[in-house]
Design goal:
Blueprint: E1 7-12, H1 20-33, E2 37-41, H2 45-50, E3 53-56, H3 83-96, E4 100-105, H4 107-119, E5 124-128, H5 144-165, E6 168-173, H6 180-188, E7 193-195, H7 203-215, E8 221-226, H8 234-244, E9 250-254, H9 266-284, E10 290-295, E11 298-303, H10 304-309, H11 317-325
Parallel strand pairs: 1-2, 1-4, 4-5, 5-10, 6-8, 6-9, 7-8
Antiparallel strand pairs: 2-3, 10-11
Helix pairs in contact: 1-9, 5-6
The structure holds adenosine-5'-diphosphate (ADP).
């Protein structure tokens, strides 16, 4: 445990996710409640290096809890990978007297925070802000619930038009390394199949099951593919299906960045508010270099170095459930 801090900084880094604003608001307002000075750091680590650091007040975070994106902007910052970049960042924090940092982002951002905090005496608290939900040490990540609900809404709409024309739709959702959005949205929309990076895609099995459906005159089918599935995404799957099953009316839809935007769901606002509050409490209590998450509805603290090593595993039972229910 370390000394208490009186000035803290907050930043959002890496891939943005809905609910980041709610987390910023919670950090700022909790900090002010404890009479801390709170600084907003613009564009993630870029703002630390460029000294784009602004004082935050209660009004700075008014009317943002319901907004997607992030008022602090987000960025990927090459310079922060280098020791000179991190040194510049440290000097700027010192200039403002910032003694503790809240980093809202994904595992890449935590890797940066972990490196920075081992080199310099600035405690860092990580808040999991990612639509991918693949971080170990938390049951929730800020943004997943909104993103998956956006996917569900879109897939429901696609099913309507698929049904009108007896089509097969292959729908690609986000998830470069993680199949959570695909799995959850697929189950929630009654998809026939879900292809995810965590499970080997057997294209032959997929073709056989579609042939079987054709024989049974089940002509409306939805397949949800995570963009990072090792077979290569929706277009690649569609190529094989069109070659092997030319009679099937096969369409592709790539949902893309709509999954990152939009007003955060109630769940994401609650998670972000709780975690933002907990981040400041953690700094007050002298915690350092931990990710704050929620496990079994309790706040849970994971050292940043463990948080970046472990990934949350997919419960494969869901794939079995999907298969049984989609028959
Ligand atoms: P995410 O946080 O969404 O996983 P990235 O992987 O792009 O996003 O990481 C965000 C930023 O964190 C990077 O642009 C870089 O500035 C910083 N970062 C990531 N990994 C490291 C690392 N190993 N060392 C230093 N900084 C890093």
């Amino acid at each position: 445990m370390q000394k208490q801090v009186s000035k803290i900084g907050v930043l959002t880094s890496g891939g943005d996710s809905p609910g980041m604003n709610a987390a910023i608001r919670a950090v700022v307002r909790t900090g002010l409640y404890y009479n801390l000075e709170v600084f907003g750091i613009m564009r993630g680590y870029m703002g630390m290096i460029d000294d784009d650091i602004v004082p935050m007040h209660s009004r700075s975070v008014a009317n943002i809890i319901q907004r997607g994106g992030t008022i602090l902007k987000s960025a990927r910052c090459k310079e922060f990978y280098e020791p000179e970049g991190r040194k510049k960042a440290y000097e700027n924090l010192r200039k403002h007297g910032i003694e503790g940092l809240v980093v809202i982002g994904g595992d890449g951002s935590f890797r940066g925070a972990q490196k920075f905090s081992t080199e310099y005496d600035i405690p860092c608290i990580g808040l999991p802000g990612t639509i991918d939900k693949d971080m170990a040490g938390t049951d929730f990540t800020i943004g997943f619930d909104t993103a998956v609900n956006t996917a569900v809404e879109a897939i429901d709409k696609i099913r309507d038009t698929a049904d009108a024309h007896d089509r097969l739709f292959i729908i690609e959702v986000m998830g470069r390394d993680s199949g959570y959005i695909a799995l959850h949205s697929g189950i929630a929309t009654g998809a026939e199949n879900v292809l995810i990076p965590e499970a080997k895609t057997n294209i032959e099995d997929l073709i056989v099951s579609l042939e079987d459906k054709q024989r049974r005159k089940k002509l409306v089918n939805i397949i949800v593919v995570a963009e990072g599935d090792e077979f290569g995404g929706a277009e690649e799957v569609a190529k094989v299906v069109r070659t092997r099953l030319p009679d099937m009316d096969t369409r592709v839809c790539i949902l893309g960045h709509i999954q990152r935007g939009g007003s955060p769901s109630c769940m994401d606002r609650l998670v972000a508010s709780r975690l933002g509050y907990a981040a400041v409490e953690s700094l007050q209590e002298g915690r350092h270099n931990v990710m704050v998450g929620i496990v079994n509805n309790k706040l849970h603290y994971t050292p940043l170095d463990s948080a970046v090593k472990a990934k949350q595993k997919i419960d494969k039972e869901w794939l079995k459930i999907l298969k049984i229910l989609a028959s």
